[in-house]
Design brief:
mainly alpha, Ferritin, elongated
Length: 290
């Protein structure tokens, strides 16, 4: 009896997850900007989720509604980070469900078919999804990582030399804009040399990613009059950007989050500390007063 209740409880949980998946994939397929190919793939996955829902419903004899909060959350993630990111994040979260299916295979024979769909068929469909921002992720990596390393280093270096928040901010803006254009130009030439189909798009993604990061890092110097406070907030902003980007990379590229985060964090802040020390000694040696 206890075993029967436990299995029923698990099946009801599976049923809720499947109906949530159906609602999310259906909503994603209707978003503006989603290609026709992706719409078909997402609709097919939604159909599979609904089929799985009905499979569990035969055993629970209960109707379950989607969790609107969960659905809204994933739609929001899709609008911010893209459909591919959202789908891959959902797939990564379904690992526990697949383990749960294995636990009921002996009691529910149809669980084996559902498990096969989750592990093979849907996975193949997810890998077929294409999205422009994902195709140019290497260009975004180049822009963001270079901006964080170069600009945190540059701003930390000139902070002690100039000791004026707004002046440091202006230097950061000029340096950042010049560097973003330079980085974009280099990416264009690199992609063109490699005979990439759209070198200009790759360059624009690099430039946009670099410039966005620049804005995040220089804003504190126009908000605070104390360059020390601005410097602290700049490092916090840099950490937030690294966190968000590392999370994005860990989901889309399926690489360890901790490794990606700590690697970029260590490099960026090591360069910043070295630049800060250089700025200190430059001010002392050159005896510059502003």
């Amino acid at each position: 009896m206890d075993n029967s209740i436990e299995i029923s409880s698990k099946l009801l949980k599976f049923q809720k997850e499947e109906i949530n998946g159906y609602a999310i994939y259906s909503a994603l397929s209707k978003l503006k900007g989603v290609s026709q190919k992706n719409k078909k793939i997402l609709s097919k996955i939604a159909e599979d989720e609904l089929h799985h829902y009905n499979t569990w419903k035969k055993y629970t004899s209960k109707e379950v509604k989607p969790n609107s909060i969960v659905v809204i959350f994933f739609i929001l993630m899709a609008k911010i980070f893209g459909v591919v990111f959202c789908v891959k994040m959902m797939e990564s979260l379904e690992g526990d469900a697949q383990e749960g299916y294995k636990e009921v295979v002996n009691d529910i024979p149809e669980a084996k078919k559902v498990l096969e769909d989750e592990e093979r068929h849907e996975r193949l469909l997810v890998d077929m999804l294409k999205e422009e921002r994902i195709e140019y992720i290497s260009s975004m990596v180049l822009g963001i990582s270079d901006a964080i390393v170069e600009l945190t280093g540059a701003l930390a270096g000139v902070s002690l030399a100039l000791q004026n928040a707004k002046l440091i901010g202006i230097v950061g803006v000029v340096t950042g804009i010049s560097a973003s254009l330079s980085m974009g130009s280099s990416e264009y030439l690199s992609q063109k040399a490699d005979k990439h189909n759209h070198p200009l798009k790759a360059a624009l993604y690099t430039t946009a990613a670099y410039f966005f990061t620049v804005l995040m890092l220089v804003v504190p110097f126009f908000v605070f009059s104390s360059f020390y406070n601005a410097l602290v907030l700049m490092f916090i902003d840099a950490t937030v950007v690294i966190l968000i980007f590392s999370f994005f990379m860990s989901v889309v590229k399926e690489i360890p989050f901790k490794k990606s985060f700590f690697e970029m964090f260590f490099i960026s802040f090591t360069v910043s500390i070295i630049s800060f020390v250089i700025g200190y000694f430059a001010r002392k040696i050159l005896n510059v007063e502003i």
